[in-house]
Amino acid sequence: MSALPTAQMLIGAYHQLIARAREHGIKVIGSTLTPFRGTDAPGYYADSKEPIREAVNHWIRTSGAFDAVIDWDKALRDPADPARLLPLYASPDQLHPSHEGYRAMSDALDPKLFR
Fold first, then answer.
1. What pTM did the predictor assign?
2. Which of the four pLDDT bands, split at 50, 70 and 90, describes residue 2?
3. Would you say residue 15 has pLDDT above 70?
4. Superfamily holding 7-114
């Protein structure tokens, strides 16, 4: 297994994307990374990845780097186990949202973000 990227590496990549978009006058809406513990995708989840996801999400929420933020993590996570999708919102692979999960994502959107 190759070394995991650090939260700072991922945040650095976000900074590059934000800068490039803004050079072209593009509004940048950030969104948090959704939980993925329990996914059946081989090698996709590891306990060592969760602190990275949490740190990146904290930065997305609090940095002010984006013009707006959509908190998919908050909308979809299981309050009893925040590293997992709420069972109602999880598809069978435990990685992608179910129909109900996509509805919850839609409900979390502020349409004003797209004006």
1. 0.92
2. low
3. yes
4. SGNH hydrolase (3.40.50.1110)
